[in-house]
């Protein structure tokens, strides 16, 4: 199992979610720690080594290596704001 490294934005995002959605996202992160490449995740084009996983109405952006799972961003699934924030992080 990978160790978790979660950035401040996703940690705060999860903290502010209603309890049902918080649990869904938390369970998805635990599953990613066991298997960072589940069948329903996709590698992001244009962002080297980043993947996305959809959880209900939310999207988790992450990367991983042999030891760590890095949660980079979490945001609304049908909202391009998460990709704008990701581009800003890249700069």
Give short descriptive properties of this protein.
alpha+beta; YaeB-like fold; globular; five-stranded mixed β-sheet; 91 residues
The number of distinct β-strands equals 5
In CATH, the homologous superfamily goes by the name RelE-like
Over all CA atoms, what is the radius of gyration?
12 Å
- Helices and strands, in N-to-C order? EHHEEEEH
Fraction of residues in helices? 25-40%
List the strand order in the largest sheet: 1-5-4-3-2
Q: What is the typical, i.e. mean, pLDDT?
A: 92
Indicate the overall shape: globular
Give the name of the CATH architecture: 2-Layer Sandwich
Question: Could you please describe the fold and organization of this structure?
Answer:
There is one protein chain. By secondary structure, this protein is α+β, with helices and mostly antiparallel strands. The protein has one domain (3-90): 2-Layer Sandwich (YaeB-like fold), CATH 3.30.2310.20. The protein has three helices and five strands; from the N terminus they run E-H-H-E-E-E-E-H. The chain has a five-stranded mixed β-sheet. The longest helix is centred in the first third of the chain and has 16 residues, at 19-34.
């Amino acid at each position: 199992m990978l160790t978790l490294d979660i950035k401040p934005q996703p940690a705060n995002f999860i903290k502010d979610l209603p309890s049902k959605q918080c649990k869904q996202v938390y369970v998805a992160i635990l599953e990613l720690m066991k298997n960072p490449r589940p069948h329903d995740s996709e590698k992001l084009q244009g962002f080297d080594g980043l993947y996305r996983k959809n959880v209900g109405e939310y999207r988790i952006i992450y990367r991983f290596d042999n030891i760590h799972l890095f949660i980079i961003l979490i945001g609304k699934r049908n909202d391009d704001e998460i990709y704008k924030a990701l581009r800003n992080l890249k700069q």
